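Here is an idea for our session: we take a single protein and study its fold together. Once you have written the record down, we can walk along the chain together.
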Amino acid sequence: MGNSEFDYRGPIKLIVFDWAGTTVDYGCFAPVRPFVGVFGAAGVEITLAEARVPMGMHKKDHIRALGTQPEIARRWSQRHGCAFTEDDVERLYLQLQSPEVARSITAASTMIPGVVDCVGQLQERGIKIGATTGYFRQAADPVREAAAAAGYRPDCSLCVDDVPAGRPAPWGMFKIMQTLDVYPPAAVVKVGDTLPDVGEGRNAGVWTVGVTRTGNDLGLSEAETLALPPAELRRRVDEVGARLLAAGAHFVIDSVPQILELLPEIEARLARGERP
């Protein structure tokens, strides 16, 4: 079939990035604190580490996963005298969508260093840029507007409200590919910092890259990473990378700018006839 789309051996056409922990919000703090807040307001204290575990999911699924986590479920039952229910999921999700929460998410979603320049270089090469997020629209829109003001403008950006189901379902990836008229999946890369990001990419059949140093699993601000002894930071980053690879990522990188170094390897594998 030669170099037809059925036997694609050409360059990468599209890269789809996650938002918090990948392109904005170093350490992925903005989406975490609201979960601590809504559970705390209901009389059940949860830690930042606990709140991070389901990160990357649709926020309603995230609340459901937290409320059914055994230790949190035990605390909820002790506080309320009954099990965590679907009515509780709906009530906490409604609270999570408040304007105050959306404003706090936007305020914390500053660009990660190097992302704007990296994406600019990719777009100059003719690579299209997409973005998906587990944020609901009230939070996603102002984050996108703030990023645009800082110079980051994906060609297509979707939030979880735009698709039938959030990660790890592939619908956001497929909708971006359709909108930007990009195929086959072998010509596409997904980049994100969470396990649901990895699932989204693999379920879409695209090259999938996990982000370690700036993301949710490491969970450290830029200042905190710089304060760690280099060997300790490397050890922690490598542990995060191992978890992302075990979940199915084809590659891991410390942060988005390293995608520029990784692209030649992906394209060399494509040229040899390899597929995601």
The CA atoms of residues 84 and 154 lie 39 Å apart. Residues 230-246 form the longest helix (17 residues). The first strand starts at residue 14 and ends at 17. The radius of gyration is 19 Å.
